[in-house]
Amino acid sequence: MTITHKFGSTTISAAPERVVTVGLTDQDAAVALGSVPVGTTEWLGGYPGAIGPWASAKLNGATAPTVLKDTGTGPQAEKIAALAPDLILAVYSGVTKEQYETLSKIAPVVAQPGEYADYGVPWQRQTEIIGRALGKEAEARTLVKGVEDRFAAAKAEHPQFAGATGVIATPYEGVFVYGSQDGRARILTSLGFAIPEGLDKAVGDAFGANISKERTDLLDAKAIVWIVGDPATDPAKLHQDKLYADLDVVRQAREVFVKESGDYGNALSFVSVLSLPYTLDRLVPQLAAAVDGDPATEVPDPRS
What pairing do the DSSP bridges indicate for beta strands 255-259 and 176-178? Predict the structure, then answer.
């Protein structure tokens, strides 16, 4: 199997048996396809093997992967080499050409596709690429269809989502918003929501960006999903900003708050073939309450 990516193409000559994932969410697709990695790269949560609770049942008793860390200097090449992989997955990643070349001396590397921003590959494409790399294309397509059917059912049940504007943001160094190339924003658009006009221009060609006070208007959507440290106290902090507090989205109670460090918040950011059903079970009822037109409707707060 030959797979093209940002840095060229990679040929996989035999079914991989020892997979290491450098892509921060690539392990979910591998596990869903029956291939438990020998090594994963930790991003969120501190879960054993970097396998979230939405995916742990798929281990089927297998040993949890060795967890590697990227501290900002790139993949830990020596530790990856010590795991003796025969395939390295870096699909949901931002590896550089130099890092790719270093890793390629250890094992074949499937890097991020070049047609998307780094960390911008859609979960469907990610699952399909990993399925090809593992020799399980048909199984990958079946997995993708199953989750897409979940989105279709939610859209049919909630026609009020269709065309309504939606934003996902976090209070990181001010206000950080996620653009249409980000997986979190794609959850909203897959449910029928639309990205507010002008948001992608403000974000540029990245998956997200901080916006200035002058662009607070971009947050005035039909629904806004905030990923915050503490849903009990952070709303009051956000509302201290008069420019934001005066928006209709606030005055009409169309805000959704998700705890960033909980299982639900981690799943919302993970955006994988296994985390999405877990996310939809919690997010869809929140969005339905936020956009029902009645400010008195309380948005539910899932605790997990």
Answer: unpaired
- Model-level pTM greater than 0.85? yes
Which H or E run contains 184?
helix 183-190
Q: What would you measure as the largest C-alpha separation in the chain, in angstroms?
A: 60
- Give the single-character DSSP code of 65: P
CA distance 230 to 235: 8
DSSP character for 161? G
Give the H/E segment covering residue 94. Answer: none
Local confidence pLDDT in tens for the 304 residues of the chain? 999 999 999 999 999 999 999 999 999 999 999 999 999 999 987 899 999 999 999 999 999 999 998 878 899 999 999 999 999 999 999 999 999 999 999 999 999 999 998 998 999 999 999 999 999 999 999 999 999 999 999 999 999 999 999 999 999 989 999 999 899 999 999 999 999 999 999 888 888 899 998 999 999 999 999 999 999 999 999 999 999 999 999 999 999 999 998 999 999 999 999 999 999 999 999 999 999 989 999 998 886 5
Report the C-alpha gap between 7 and 91 in whole angstroms: 12
Question: d(Cα 230, Cα 249) in Å, to the nearest integer?
Answer: 20
The CA dihedral of 158, 271, 266, 117, to the nearest 10 degrees, is -120
- How far, in Å, CA of 39 to CA of 55, rounded? 15
Spatial separation of the C-alpha atoms in residues 145 and 139, rounded to whole Å: 10
Q: Give CA separation, 166 vs 12, 84, 157, 219, in Å.
A: 41, 44, 18, 9
CA distance 11 to 21: 17
Closest to 193 measured CA to CA, from 149, 160, 150, 147 = 160
Q: Read off the tokens for 17.
A: 């048996």
Give 3-state DSSP helix, strand, coil % of the chain, rounded to 5.
Answer: 40, 15, 45
